[in-house]
């Protein structure tokens, strides 16, 4: 990376972001996928420290299929236009038209910087561009040309961010940014005495919520560990299959895969506690506007994509950001699963996957597993090893001591009311009831099962494995 800027990895408060540089990737409809490739290598949003001042860079891909009658203003406040053409068609003829569109509506014509990107299959014309393309490029002011071929992506990143630095110098002088920073500080000076205790309160509140995941049954400490399996709607089938194999459930195929009304909990016996692992699959069938809080009290997020589905892969970062935004616990752990079944064609390259994992791992430690359809046992083993690591991190000795002190007077918290359940079998296994959360656990406000049905439709039966220290509840 250039010494003129550094990428900010940690979460930054909005008051510390002094400016925004907006870019838009445009071109004929034949270049949509090419533009996505370029954007992917710069990612969708970045926070940079350019010469000591922190700002945000946003990237937008022009939608060629928006109805002309709809309100669509992608060029407003754009200062960097990336015009893309494909050398294999006539899209180069519209370079001037696209630049004219941005210039007309951006509101900063004098500042606008343009990067013209030609998509070529190889390096054949690198030193000797066709004359018609040269003429189209030469007519664009304040522009630079980038010759793109499959292995030249890193170089484009350098060109793009050097342009970002130039915009910072042209549009946001140090003097102007110092004024903005001073104004923001004046607005918050009155609130500073309030902010400090709020931070402490947030941390304390998060710890209190996590403590409520613990309960005591007789002399045994029982802790609820929630995991959410999620991804695009197109991979819901894979999410269910992954859940089935991890928990050792009977495999279902086709439409039957959605017939699990309850996903049974899995009990993991530890030396000083019992972990109740509860896995839910994100429900895409919840109508818009309905209350749905799938991330409530969730510590593990299993994000799924398919190697034959580009969109599911591109949205992994969005799912990651959504769990970060809406989880009520400050600690989240990520297990990413890529599905490449034997009967499907791999569209996503392994290098793309590696880039994605490297990007997320800079912010959060993650685990990754590639499912092939024949290595389910390996997936199960790796996942439960991951669960052990999460338990070791989240449920430390100090945490367990706090749980013990808080729950010492709350024995039998999982016991059922005898007047409601008289069945001897239910009495015997009373401590492990699935359709009642611990009385110490805050209600997660999920209106029914994540599979779209109510949890309390009928009584549950329990089945214990005699050859293992774990049991599964149905």
Automatic annotation (TrEMBL):
It holds the Pfam family Ras. It comes from the Eukaryota. One of its GO terms (molecular function) is GTP binding. InterPro entries: P-loop_NTPase, Small_GTPase. This is Ras family protein. It comes from Entamoeba histolytica (strain ATCC 30459 / HM-1:IMSS / ABRM).
């Amino acid at each position: 990376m250039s010494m003129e800027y550094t990428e900010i990895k940690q979460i930054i408060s909005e008051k510390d972001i002094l400016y925004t540089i907006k870019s838009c990737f445009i071109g004929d409809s034949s270049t949509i996928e090419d533009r996505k490739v370029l954007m992917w290598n710069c990612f969708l949003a970045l926070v940079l420290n350019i010469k000591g001042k922190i700002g945000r860079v946003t990237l937008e891909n022009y939608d060629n299929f928006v109805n002309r009658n709809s309100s669509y203003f992608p060029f407003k406040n754009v200062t960097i236009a990336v015009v893309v053409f494909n050398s294999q068609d006539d899209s180069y003829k519209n370079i001037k038209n696209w630049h004219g569109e941005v210039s007309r509506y951006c509101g900063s014509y004098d500042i606008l910087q343009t990067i013209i990107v030609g998509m070529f299959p190889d390096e054949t014309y690198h030193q000797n561009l066709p004359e018609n393309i040269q003429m189209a490029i030469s007519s664009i002011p304040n522009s630079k040309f980038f010759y793109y071929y499959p292995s030249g992506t890193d170089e484009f990143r350098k060109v793009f961010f050097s342009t970002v630095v130039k915009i910072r110098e042209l549009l946001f002088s140090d003097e102007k940014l110092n004024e903005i920073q001073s104004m923001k500080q004046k607005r918050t000076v009155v609130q500073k005495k309030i902010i400090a205790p709020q931070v402490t309160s947030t941390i304390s509140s998060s710890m209190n919520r996590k403590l409520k995941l613990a309960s005591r049954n007789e002399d045994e400490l029982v802790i609820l560990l929630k995991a959410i399996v999620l991804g695009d709607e197109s991979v819901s089938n894979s999410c269910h299959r992954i859940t089935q194999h991890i928990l050792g459930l009977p495999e279902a195929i086709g439409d039957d895969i959605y017939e699990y009304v309850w996903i049974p909990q899995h009990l993991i016996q530890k030396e000083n506690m019992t972990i109740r692992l509860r896995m839910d699959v994100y429900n895409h069938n919840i109508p818009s506007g309905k209350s749905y809080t799938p991330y409530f009290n969730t510590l593990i997020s299993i994000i799924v994509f398919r190697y034959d589905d580009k969109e599911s892969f591109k949205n992994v970062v969005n799912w990651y950001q959504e769990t970060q935004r809406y989880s009520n616990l400050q600690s989240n752990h990520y297990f990413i699963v890529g599905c490449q079944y034997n009967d499907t064609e791999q569209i996503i390259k392994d290098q793309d996957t590696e880039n994605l994992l490297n990007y997320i791992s800079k912010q959060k430690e993650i685990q990754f597993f590639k499912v092939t359809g024949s290595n389910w046992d390996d997936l199960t083993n790796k996942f439960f090893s991951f669960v052990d690591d999460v338990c070791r991190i989240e449920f430390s000795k100090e945490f367990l001591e706090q749980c013990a002190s808080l729950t010492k007077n709350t024995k039998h918290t999982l016991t059922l009311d005898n007047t409601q359940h008289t069945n001897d079998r239910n009495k015997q296994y009373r401590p492990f009831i699935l359709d009642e959360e611990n009385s110490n656990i805050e209600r997660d406000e999920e209106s029914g099962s994540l599979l779209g049905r109510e949890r309390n439709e009928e009584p549950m039966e329990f089945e214990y494995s005699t050859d293992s220290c774990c049991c599964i509840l149905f």
